[in-house]
Amino acid sequence: MPTIDPRVDAYIDNKAADFAKPILRHLRKLVHEGCPDVVETWKWSFPHFDYKGVMCSMASFKEHCAFGFWKQSLMESDAIPAEKTAMGTFGRITSLDDLPDDETMLGLIKQAVKLNDDGVKIERTPPTTDKTLVVPEVLTAALEQNPAASEYFNAFPYSKRKDYVVWITEAKSDATREKRLATTIEQLAEGKSRNWKYEKC
Predict the structure, then answer these.
(1) What's the CATH architecture for 6-117?
(2) Where are the domains of the chain?
(3) Where are the alpha helices (DSSP H) in the chain?
(4) How confident is the model over 55-83, as pLDDT tens digits?
Protein backbone atom coordinates (compact mmCIF):
# COMPACT_ATOMS: atom_id res chain seq x y z
CA MET A 1 0.00 0.00 0.00
CA PRO A 2 1.32 3.46 -0.86
CA THR A 3 2.07 5.81 2.01
CA ILE A 4 -0.02 8.88 1.30
CA ASP A 5 0.24 12.18 3.18
CA PRO A 6 -3.06 14.15 3.28
CA ARG A 7 -1.05 17.37 3.24
CA VAL A 8 -0.02 16.56 -0.33
CA ASP A 9 -3.68 16.20 -1.32
CA ALA A 10 -4.47 19.53 0.35
CA TYR A 11 -1.49 21.19 -1.36
CA ILE A 12 -2.59 20.04 -4.82
CA ASP A 13 -6.31 20.68 -4.30
CA ASN A 14 -6.15 23.99 -2.45
CA LYS A 15 -2.81 25.69 -3.07
CA ALA A 16 -1.74 24.70 -6.59
CA ALA A 17 -2.87 26.76 -9.57
CA ASP A 18 -5.32 25.06 -11.92
CA PHE A 19 -2.67 24.45 -14.60
CA ALA A 20 -0.45 22.77 -12.01
CA LYS A 21 -2.95 20.27 -10.58
CA PRO A 22 -2.73 17.67 -13.39
CA ILE A 23 1.06 18.01 -13.52
CA LEU A 24 1.50 17.41 -9.79
CA ARG A 25 -0.98 14.52 -9.79
CA HIS A 26 0.85 12.90 -12.69
CA LEU A 27 4.25 13.31 -11.04
CA ARG A 28 2.90 11.88 -7.81
CA LYS A 29 1.49 8.86 -9.66
CA LEU A 30 4.81 8.23 -11.43
CA VAL A 31 6.79 8.39 -8.19
CA HIS A 32 4.52 5.80 -6.57
CA GLU A 33 4.67 3.63 -9.67
CA GLY A 34 8.45 3.79 -9.83
CA CYS A 35 8.91 3.29 -6.09
CA PRO A 36 5.96 1.48 -4.46
CA ASP A 37 7.59 1.82 -1.01
CA VAL A 38 7.96 5.59 -1.24
CA VAL A 39 6.69 7.64 1.71
CA GLU A 40 5.07 11.01 1.13
CA THR A 41 6.12 13.69 3.57
CA TRP A 42 6.28 17.44 4.03
CA LYS A 43 9.46 19.52 4.20
CA TRP A 44 10.09 23.23 3.67
CA SER A 45 6.39 23.83 2.93
CA PHE A 46 6.06 21.56 -0.10
CA PRO A 47 5.68 17.83 -0.83
CA HIS A 48 8.63 15.45 -0.65
CA PHE A 49 8.97 11.76 -1.36
CA ASP A 50 11.23 9.70 0.91
CA TYR A 51 12.70 6.27 0.35
CA LYS A 52 15.58 5.44 2.67
CA GLY A 53 16.12 9.18 2.85
CA VAL A 54 14.92 12.07 0.71
CA MET A 55 14.45 10.99 -2.90
CA CYS A 56 12.59 13.76 -4.73
CA SER A 57 10.16 16.65 -4.30
CA MET A 58 7.68 18.77 -6.19
CA ALA A 59 6.33 22.29 -5.82
CA SER A 60 3.84 24.62 -7.43
CA PHE A 61 4.37 28.34 -7.96
CA LYS A 62 2.23 31.05 -9.51
CA GLU A 63 3.19 30.35 -13.12
CA HIS A 64 5.17 27.10 -13.08
CA CYS A 65 5.86 23.86 -11.23
CA ALA A 66 9.10 22.23 -10.19
CA PHE A 67 10.17 18.65 -9.64
CA GLY A 68 13.58 17.66 -8.40
CA PHE A 69 15.62 14.59 -7.55
CA TRP A 70 17.64 15.03 -4.37
CA LYS A 71 20.70 13.35 -5.91
CA GLN A 72 20.28 14.56 -9.49
CA SER A 73 23.99 15.42 -9.73
CA LEU A 74 24.74 11.69 -9.48
CA MET A 75 22.14 10.60 -12.02
CA GLU A 76 22.79 9.91 -15.68
CA SER A 77 20.27 10.80 -18.37
CA ASP A 78 20.06 12.99 -21.45
CA ALA A 79 16.63 14.02 -20.15
CA ILE A 80 18.20 16.09 -17.37
CA PRO A 81 18.95 19.54 -18.83
CA ALA A 82 22.41 20.96 -18.25
CA GLU A 83 21.01 24.42 -17.53
CA LYS A 84 17.94 25.10 -15.42
CA THR A 85 15.37 27.88 -15.76
CA ALA A 86 14.13 27.41 -12.19
CA MET A 87 14.59 25.19 -9.15
CA GLY A 88 14.35 21.44 -9.62
CA THR A 89 15.70 18.92 -12.10
CA PHE A 90 13.72 20.09 -15.12
CA GLY A 91 13.47 23.84 -14.56
CA ARG A 92 10.14 25.58 -15.20
CA ILE A 93 7.32 23.10 -15.79
CA THR A 94 4.15 24.66 -17.17
CA SER A 95 2.60 21.59 -18.79
CA LEU A 96 3.16 17.84 -19.02
CA ASP A 97 4.95 18.50 -22.32
CA ASP A 98 7.82 20.03 -20.32
CA LEU A 99 8.55 16.66 -18.73
CA PRO A 100 10.29 13.64 -20.25
CA ASP A 101 7.98 10.80 -21.33
CA ASP A 102 6.70 8.42 -18.65
CA GLU A 103 9.18 5.67 -19.51
CA THR A 104 12.10 8.07 -19.10
CA MET A 105 10.69 9.47 -15.87
CA LEU A 106 10.24 5.99 -14.43
CA GLY A 107 13.82 5.18 -15.37
CA LEU A 108 15.02 8.27 -13.50
CA ILE A 109 12.91 7.41 -10.46
CA LYS A 110 14.42 3.93 -10.41
CA GLN A 111 17.91 5.46 -10.61
CA ALA A 112 17.04 7.57 -7.58
CA VAL A 113 15.75 4.49 -5.77
CA LYS A 114 18.99 2.61 -6.45
CA LEU A 115 21.13 5.48 -5.20
CA ASN A 116 19.24 5.42 -1.91
CA ASP A 117 19.28 1.61 -1.79
CA ASP A 118 23.06 1.70 -2.17
CA GLY A 119 23.39 4.39 0.48
CA VAL A 120 25.21 6.75 -1.89
CA LYS A 121 25.82 10.15 -0.35
CA ILE A 122 26.38 13.49 -2.06
CA GLU A 123 29.70 15.00 -1.07
CA ARG A 124 29.01 18.58 -0.17
CA THR A 125 31.87 21.06 -0.21
CA PRO A 126 31.65 23.76 2.44
CA PRO A 127 31.19 27.18 0.84
CA THR A 128 34.38 29.21 0.63
CA THR A 129 32.95 32.42 -0.81
CA ASP A 130 32.71 35.55 1.26
CA LYS A 131 29.16 35.91 2.54
CA THR A 132 29.35 39.67 2.88
CA LEU A 133 26.17 40.99 1.30
CA VAL A 134 26.43 44.21 -0.70
CA VAL A 135 23.15 46.05 -0.17
CA PRO A 136 22.35 48.55 -2.96
CA GLU A 137 22.17 52.20 -1.96
CA VAL A 138 18.50 52.51 -2.96
CA LEU A 139 17.56 49.74 -0.52
CA THR A 140 19.76 51.13 2.25
CA ALA A 141 18.15 54.56 1.87
CA ALA A 142 14.64 53.10 1.86
CA LEU A 143 15.36 51.03 4.97
CA GLU A 144 16.60 54.11 6.79
CA GLN A 145 13.18 55.66 6.23
CA ASN A 146 11.33 52.66 7.66
CA PRO A 147 12.69 51.42 11.02
CA ALA A 148 10.36 48.41 11.16
CA ALA A 149 11.44 47.20 7.72
CA SER A 150 15.08 47.82 8.62
CA GLU A 151 14.79 45.85 11.85
CA TYR A 152 13.28 42.83 10.13
CA PHE A 153 15.76 42.98 7.25
CA ASN A 154 18.76 43.04 9.58
CA ALA A 155 17.31 40.19 11.64
CA PHE A 156 16.83 37.95 8.62
CA PRO A 157 19.45 35.30 7.83
CA TYR A 158 21.85 35.95 4.97
CA SER A 159 19.84 33.94 2.44
CA LYS A 160 16.61 35.87 2.99
CA ARG A 161 18.35 39.24 2.85
CA LYS A 162 20.08 38.14 -0.35
CA ASP A 163 16.71 37.21 -1.90
CA TYR A 164 15.60 40.83 -1.64
CA VAL A 165 18.93 42.28 -2.76
CA VAL A 166 19.10 40.09 -5.87
CA TRP A 167 15.47 40.81 -6.74
CA ILE A 168 16.08 44.55 -6.67
CA THR A 169 19.47 44.57 -8.38
CA GLU A 170 18.27 42.33 -11.22
CA ALA A 171 15.49 44.74 -12.22
CA LYS A 172 15.96 45.70 -15.87
CA SER A 173 14.41 49.17 -15.65
CA ASP A 174 14.13 52.00 -13.13
CA ALA A 175 10.36 51.59 -13.02
CA THR A 176 10.64 47.89 -12.20
CA ARG A 177 13.31 48.61 -9.60
CA GLU A 178 11.14 51.22 -7.90
CA LYS A 179 8.15 48.88 -7.86
CA ARG A 180 10.20 46.06 -6.40
CA LEU A 181 11.72 48.40 -3.84
CA ALA A 182 8.27 49.53 -2.68
CA THR A 183 7.09 45.93 -2.39
CA THR A 184 10.27 45.02 -0.49
CA ILE A 185 9.77 47.73 2.11
CA GLU A 186 6.08 46.92 2.46
CA GLN A 187 6.75 43.22 2.99
CA LEU A 188 9.70 43.78 5.31
CA ALA A 189 7.64 46.12 7.49
CA GLU A 190 5.29 43.18 8.02
CA GLY A 191 8.18 40.80 8.75
CA LYS A 192 7.76 38.93 5.47
CA SER A 193 10.55 37.34 3.48
CA ARG A 194 10.77 37.71 -0.29
CA ASN A 195 9.15 34.29 -0.84
CA TRP A 196 6.81 34.36 2.14
CA LYS A 197 3.84 33.03 0.12
CA TYR A 198 5.64 29.76 -0.55
CA GLU A 199 6.93 29.27 2.96
CA LYS A 200 3.52 28.70 4.53
CA CYS A 201 2.29 25.18 5.19
Answers:
(1) Alpha-Beta Complex (3.90)
(2) 6-117, 137-198
(3) 6-10, 20-34, 102-117, 137-144, 147-155, 158-169, 174-189
(4) 999 999 888 999 999 998 888 888 888 76
